[in-house]
Each structure stands twice: as structure tokens, then as C-alpha cells.
Design a protein that fits this description.
alpha/beta; Rossmann fold; 4-stranded antiparallel beta sheet; 9 helices
């Protein structure tokens, strides 16, 4: 477990500070020294190829793995030194939107979305739970879908149900794991719009793990390119595409995306990249 230390002088805009974090499994280093400032009410996208360390970094952000060295500060609290009981409290600050929505196929939409409330808000009555679920579904454009089964939903609808479930405990941070993976281009753009609409509407900080460069250019306030357990480039996506880091320029070019045609999504509407 990481040693207890006095908190650093964390900038007030930082919602999460990843402070020189390293992670090894046995003698194999996976994260080799990463520092990241994830700012409040912005969308940060962590990009990189397979095996870069993105998944390990995600697991450390939500406390499923602890750093071998270094610290992760969430709202000024060093989560690496917390025990499991304390970490469960911190995890309620996070909402997790999984790659393929991770809905329970045997439960209808209402019961899927209600699951976090029934686990963590046991004082709520049945009607109050139903009212909260239906209200959230309506906010996300899923009117009259509460009695549908996951198999009856489109890919985009399943993503919205997964997001509704993630929002039920009113988290301040949303983590998206490959949210556009396996989706067609139109649905991917809809998911990008949804990520930014949700950030604006609920004032959340969004952290997206992705390899989708088109999505990154549309939603990222800042992007971090992870290669072999290190952040080798950071900044706005256009800064990575046109910056001094040759590996970043090559990575983006290899994606085949015409980045000059892409623009950020703000308030659900595309605007020119800064």
C-alpha cells in the first residue's frame, strides 16, 4: 500500500491528480511513471494501442488496483492508502459506463438501472426507486423503455441505459471504457454527443478510455497518449496531431481519420477545434 503523505499543492481545477504513478505485476512494469491532471467538468480522453497500460490505469483510478509507487488523489484524497471499506465510499463518486453497456440480460431496463440504488440506497422505497429510474430514462431519451429487455434495444439505446445506471448515484466523475467500440459511425457520433451532453447537464468530469481518434477529436478537452506505460504526449487533440511528438503524430495519422474535418462537440453542437 502506498505510504501516507501530505497532499501536494493540488490545483483547484484538478478533480483527479495522478502523481508519478507506477504499477508492476511481479517483475513486469505496466505503468512506468504517469502524472496526469484531470480537470473538473472537462472530458479527458486516454488513448493508446493494445497493451499500452490503459486498462491498468483505469483500474487504479477506481481503486481496483493500487499503485506500486506514486499516488492518485481524488478530490484531494489519496485513494491508494484507503482500505476496501473506505474505497467503497470513494467509488460512489464514480459512475462507470462499460464497453458494451454490461447490462444484465435477464433483467428489464428498469431493474438494470435501479440496481445501484437497491445496492447503495436501501432506505428508498419501491415507488421512489421507480420514479428516479423513469425520470433518468426520460432525461436520456428513453421514454417508455423501462419494461423492455436489453435484447429489444438498439446498440445506442443500450449505451444510454448503461449511462442511466451509471448516473443513478449522482456521481461527480464518469469513467467510460471504450464507449464507441463496436459501433457504426452514426451511433458512435451519437455516443460522443451523449458524453458531452451528459457532462454539461450533470456537471460531471468525464474520463474516457479509447482508441477511437475520431471520437477523441470530437469530445476531448485534453488527450493523453499512453505508450508502454508512459504518457508520451498530452494536450488538445489538435496539439497532439500537429505537435513536436513524432510518435503522437504517427499514431494519429495511422488511425486514418481526417482530423482536419473533425470538430469538438459542445453543448451537443459541433464547434471548430481550438
Amino acid at each position: 500500500m502506498a505510504a501516507e503523505v501530505d497532499p501536494p499543492n493540488i490545483p483547484p481545477e484538478d478533480h483527479i491528480l495522478v502523481d508519478d504513478v507506477k504499477k508492476s505485476f511481479g517483475s513486469t512494469p505496466v505503468i512506468r511513471g504517469i502524472t496526469m491532471h484531470l480537470r473538473r467538468r472537462e472530458t479527458a480522453v486516454i488513448i493508446g494501442g493494445s497493451g499500452a497500460g490503459k486498462t491498468t490505469l483505469l483500474r487504479m483510478l477506481i481503486g481496483l488496483e493500487k499503485p506500486s509507487t506514486g499516488h492518485i488523489w481524488v478530490e484531494g484524497e489519496d485513494i491508494g492508502r484507503l482500505n476496501e471499506y473506505q474505497m467503497n465510499r470513494v467509488r460512489q463518486k464514480f459512475g462507470m459506463v462499460f464497453q458494451y453497456a454490461a447490462l444484465l440480460d435477464s433483467l428489464n431496463v428498469l431493474d438494470n438501472v435501479a440496481f445501484p440504488l437497491r445496492e447503495h440506497r436501501k432506505h428508498l422505497g419501491r415507488k421512489e426507486v421507480i420514479d428516479k429510474v423513469v425520470s433518468m430514462l426520460n432525461l436520456l431519451g428513453l421514454e417508455n423503455k423501462e419494461h423492455r429487455m436489453p435484447s429489444e434495444l438498439s446498440g445506442g439505446q443500450r449505451k444510454r441505459v448503461g449511462l442511466a445506471r451509471a448516473l443513478m448515484l449522482e456521481p461527480r466523475i464518469l469513467i467510460y471504457d471504450e464507449p464507441t467500440s463496436g459501433l457504426d459511425p452514426l451511433t458512435s457520433r451519437m455516443v460522443d454527443d451523449l458524453i458531452e451532453e451528459t457532462r454539461e447537464r450533470f456537471n460531471v468530469t468525464s474520463v474516457v478510455i479509447s482508441h477511437d481518434m475520431a471520437s477523441t477529436f470530437r469530445i476531448a478537452h485534453q488527450a493523453f497518449l499512453v505508450v508502454n506505460g508512459l504518457v508520451i504526449a498530452r494536450g488538445r487533440p489538435d496539439e497532439l496531431a500537429n505537435g513536436d511528438c513524432e510518435e503522437a503524430r504517427t499514431f494519429i495519422k495511422a488511425s486514418g481519420v481526417a482530423t482536419e474535418r473533425l470538430s469538438r462537440v459542445t453543448d451537443g453542437k459541433p464547434v471548430a477545434a481550438e
